[in-house]
Amino acid sequence: MRIPRAELRLAARSFTRHPGFTTVAVLSLALAIALNTTMYSVIDALVRPKVDMTDADRLYGLRIWGDARNHVDPGTRASLLRTGFDVYESATFISSLGIANSQLAVEYKRRYQMSAGMAVAPNYFQVLGVQPIVGRVFVDADAVAESSPVIISDRLSAGLFPDGESPLSKVIDIDGAPHPVIGVIGARSQFPGQHNDIWLLPPPGTKLADIPFSVLRLKKGISPERADQQLHTLSARFAALANESPKDAWFQLIPETRPAFSFQGFHFALIGAVVAVLLIACANLANLQLARGIARSRELALRTALGASRRDIILQLVLESAILAAVGLVVGVLLTVWGVHFLSSRVPPSVGEYLIAPQTSWRVFAFAAVAAVLCVMLVGLLPALRVSRVDPNELLKSGAGTGANKRSRRQYGAMVVIEIGLSLAVLSAAAVVVRAAFVATRVKPDYDVKPLSAAWILFRVPADTTLRYSELFDGLISVAKTLPDVADAAWNGWRQVDSSAVTVMEAGGSLREIPAPMFGYTMVSPSYLRTMGRAVIRGHDFIEGPHAEPEVIVSEATAKFLWPGADPIGQRIKLGSARSYAAWVRVVGITPTQRETNNNQLVRDPESPYPSRLGAIYYLPGVHDSLHVTKARAMAFDLYVRARTDPDRMPITLKRGLRDLGPMQLISANRMEVAIGLVRERERRGFVAAMFSVFAVLAIALAALGIYGIVAHSVAERRREFGVRIALGATDRNILHVVLREGNPVALAGVALGLLLTKYTVEWLAAFSFEGDQRDAPLFAAMAAVLFGVAVVAALIPALRATRIDPVESLRCE
User: Fold this and answer.
1) CB 264, CB 43: distance < 8 Å
2) What is the pTM of this model?
3) Burial class (CB in 10 A: 0-12, 13-18, 19+), 636
4) Whole-number Cα distances in Å, 689 to 142, 433, 696
5) Dihedral of the CA atoms 500, 506, 508, 512 (nearest 10)?
6) pLDDT for the residue numbered 129
7) What's the CA gap between 323 and 15, in Å, rounded?
8) Can you tell me whether residue 194 is helix, strand or coil?
9) Tens digits of residue pLDDT in 532-545
10) Residue 245: how many other CB atoms lie within 10 Å
11) What is the pLDDT of residues 322-332, one digit of tens each?
12) Are 708 and 797 in contact (CB under 8 A)?
């Protein structure tokens, strides 16, 4: 349909005459579109992450399953793949050769951090088609170079070289060895789910041809199905060499750049919040357009009297809304680009575990365009139809309004009810996650974690071995205490009670067995409580040196539950059922009930009780405590150290000092607050709380705008009525009462709807709230009161304007 230029000029001129309305309308729509598209960019990055790799869709990972007995050596596997698989264009490998584990201690000029790393083939980045930000990638000559060059991520580069210093040719220390930096790559140059900061090459002398490739690029025109058919034949040969069934040993191709992503409750809450903000913005603009249209009713009536048809009136109003939406879309897209950049710079490392960075794509801008079209329909069409039905003769005769259209006000009041309901649901969700984030900043263990560091040790135990705990760990503690800046060290390990029960001996010698399903206790070294900075309030702490018999120290909560009203010191307990082989041990001390973390989830109440109401039990093994291993296995335990002066550097000290532990292997080392999940929880909760706070603030502002729009609409329609009331002696208080009585029921109905929506929506935030927050009636009542207060204030503005109506001016047309 061709739109006359005169209509465009008329629509544009109508906005220039009301700059305040135009500014509010454009900004509210632009903010709503920008918020939606920015959050859509987050979802888009999760579902279809964009990577800076050439033809990323042709990159596949090759996984080898089975052959647990290693009948097929790596060289034979590599040869089997090279000779029996010809559908790939190029291939490379990721190897653990040269890296004991993925965590590396990095240092440069007293700047240090623990970083994830991997060993790769020299052609790794060429196969991926990755271009470095600065410098270069590996070449074949680097594999034999004595300098052992490395490539680092832009994130690590910013941490080691914060003042803009070029990292190229700088020599950084990695696990005690010097490595020159030859290149820097960006975050999108990794596969989704990978968050490495360092790439090294296998040690010189490694036979690269004997390492099976694990990443390949399919030839152009080769489908994954055809590659799978060839792998099926190859898997049969591999299974035969491994002497296993084809069901137990096979090769598998996995798309590297298409991670499986499943929506969870949090994502639905996130999507619901941004869509609610968009709907609120559209509905508010529709109300504002309606109020503005009614205020312009004499102008529209005059146009009708001069020959304009209803179609012309509708076209003009829709055209004005389209201009608003177009300008709002342009501003919203600009804000989206800024918002994506801002959000990318604020994504904390813990959130970066599952989100590389928000990304802009054609899907993001298509979403913005659809949102703009939706707004045109809601903002322009409905008010246009409503205003176009007004009788021009009545308008020209009655002037500014008759006050008779109560049905119209009820219809648009229902729209505001929905807006307030959605706003309250968003506000309540924000309140839940913000309070959880606030609690996360205050909840901490009841001991000072700052000087502490934790290391995770893996011990590979041969088959048919008997281990004495004292002999096993005394040497490790001795070595740890000799490291620089170590004030004290201790170890602990978790064990489950035998037969899911705990037995105590009563004063008369009788036994009382207490069921303790899934309960475990902590085996510790003598220095454990001192190293952790925990006090013993009764009895005494463990004494250094060998102990002929095992001893335990229990928390106050445990003591009160097991021996109510009795002195626990000297009591005997068996960490198993009465018929188990567990030894009887004596209680030598009581420690305060501690607030802990549980599986990296913060616990708000001290020592959240187990089903049996048992708390902490610390078990010190005796010299004869041992463990007999019938089959080869790996044991894991924790080593804790207290630093004297520089706890930030202690993880690197541990990584370097505990490198040669024989059958033991240090897997990771971190500061204590990182190891127990405090930093991760605070970052995740803080990031989510910040996002929902933005949603809540914008939703409240838009809800206030909605109330303002409907009350202003009412005042515009009832201008003549208010003039008559004032002429007959109505006071300002009387006028305020009449106007607020129009808006308050709408606000109360919206609050009621919002509380109903809150009941269901906050359940989606279980991962970011504490138990019971979903049923916190006082919190939700407080949010309802806040929103109702905002609505009252928003209604006061047009109400005060109504008190200043000139009765002579409003009645002049009569």
Assistant:
1) no
2) 0.70
3) exposed
4) 46, 5, 10
5) -30
6) 93
7) 10
8) coil
9) 998 999 999 999 88
10) 11
11) 777 788 788 88
12) yes
